[in-house]
Design goal:
Blueprint: H1 7-36, H2 41-66, H3 77-109, H4 116-142, E1 144-145, E2 160-161, H5 165-191, H6 198-208, H7 212-223, H8 225-230, H9 234-257, H10 262-268, E3 276-280, E4 290-294, E5 299-302, E6 308-311, E7 326-328, E8 331-332, H11 345-358
Antiparallel strand pairs: 1-2, 3-4, 5-6, 7-8
Helix pairs in contact: 1-2, 1-9, 2-3, 3-4, 3-5, 3-9, 4-5, 5-6, 5-7, 7-9
Length: 365
């Protein structure tokens, strides 16, 4: 049948957000493979999240073609049942996508944590989020018997529900939103005592905390669940909830991709990632950060006064981290250039004496 009601808007939003997510994931994977050359489990879970969202968009689009987004009075019971069944399949994809998306964020933060209790908290987030998502996905088709009565209004009189699905959905959605806010706060806790410039530290923490926008979408989505439980025009009313679900997952994908694109941004600006020093903050270190000096570019010149100087070029384009916010599984890496200047007077004097000793001596008569 022809698309009608809110259906076309839903389809347009879902596929636009899927394309946007694909662009960010593609740039992230390019950065990982071409610049950092390290693919992690967070990358794989992001791809899995996107694939689930594609399945969600496909099933939602088919449901729209079957009648979702239109008022119940405009649909026959058979058409309504078919559209409702497709919507429920789409909701299974959405429930799993939300859980896997939070797993991706947690695994990404695993790259920067070094304390054991930080890792335990992240694993707790992963376990609880996936457990709730799995229960919600299963509950979509098991909340009532007979199962067909869930989507066929002609069997509504025979329906016996064993589970308060709206309450379960509220718990899952509320916990997902809480995870967004908590995971946005965690980088500030982890990185605040790291030996970095204050301005750079704040910019890094902000980039790692963009998930707060996904949390806002989750709150809006959760607040609309009561309306769905009370409406008699379910297929028309649910479109807004489906849009907010897609937006929440899309925001999660984008927010977890943006910090990983920093090396690509530095390269596009003409920066270099092969010079400077790396900072490794070790939790077991008693003497503070460990610095490794490498590749200090210099130009040596001898002056008439016998001084030796090493000067750095004037290009300051690479004073920020060009290796990325996270380039190691347990540390923050920061790359900077140094200027080293010194006068080795003793060495010059020794060299001058050696040269004079080798010159032929003149006899004065």
């Amino acid at each position: 049948m022809l698309l009608g009601g809110k259906g076309p808007v839903l389809v347009a939003v879902l596929w636009s957000e899927n394309c946007l997510s694909a662009i960010f994931i593609g740039l992230r994977l390019y950065t990982r493979t071409s610049i950092i050359t390290r693919i992690g489990w967070d990358d794989y879970t992001l791809v899995a999240t996107w694939l689930l969202m594609v399945g969600y968009a496909v099933m939602s689009s088919i449901a729209v073609a079957a009648g979702m987004g239109q008022h119940a009075r405009d649909l026959t019971p058979e058409i309504y049942a078919n559209a409702m069944f497709l919507v429920m399949i789409a909701q299974v994809f959405a429930a799993l996508a939300i859980g896997v998306a939070k797993v991706a964020v947690s695994l990404f933060l695993m790259r920067i944590v070094v304390n054991k209790w930080h890792k335990c908290i992240l694993w707790f987030c992963i376990a609880t989020m996936m457990a709730l998502s799995a229960v919600l996905a299963i509950g979509i088709f098991t909340q009532c018997t007979p199962t067909r009565s869930l989507w066929d209004p002609r069997l509504a009189a025979e329906r016996i529900c064993h589970l308060n699905f709206i309450l379960l959905a509220k718990i899952d959605c509320g916990w997902a939103a809480a995870m967004d806010f908590f995971l946005a706060l965690l980088p500030w806790i982890i990185l605040w005592n790291v030996n970095m410039r204050r301005k750079e530290k704040i910019s890094v923490c902000i980039s790692l905390s963009l998930g707060v926008f996904a949390g806002v979408c989750g709150v809006i989505r959760t607040s609309g669940l009561d309306v769905l439980s009370q409406t008699a025009d379910y297929l028309y009313a649910i479109t807004e909830s489906l849009i907010w679900t897609s937006t929440e997952v899309t925001m999660t994908i984008i927010c977890v991709c943006i910090p990983s694109l920093r090396p690509l941004w530095v390269r596009l600006r003409g920066g270099s990632s092969s010079e400077g020093y790396q900072e490794h903050t070790s939790p077991g270190s008693k003497s503070g950060p460990i610095y490794s000096l490498k590749y200090l570019p210099s130009e040596a010149r001898c002056t008439g006064a016998g001084g030796v100087s090493h000067d750095r070029g004037t290009n300051d384009a690479d004073t920020e981290s060009s290796k990325g916010i996270v380039t190691h599984s347990s540390a923050i890496h920061r790359v900077q250039e140094f200027t080293v200047a010194y006068d080795d007077t003793q060495s010059i004097a020794s060299t001058r004496n050696d040269v004079e000793a080798q010159l032929p001596k003149k006899t004065v008569i």
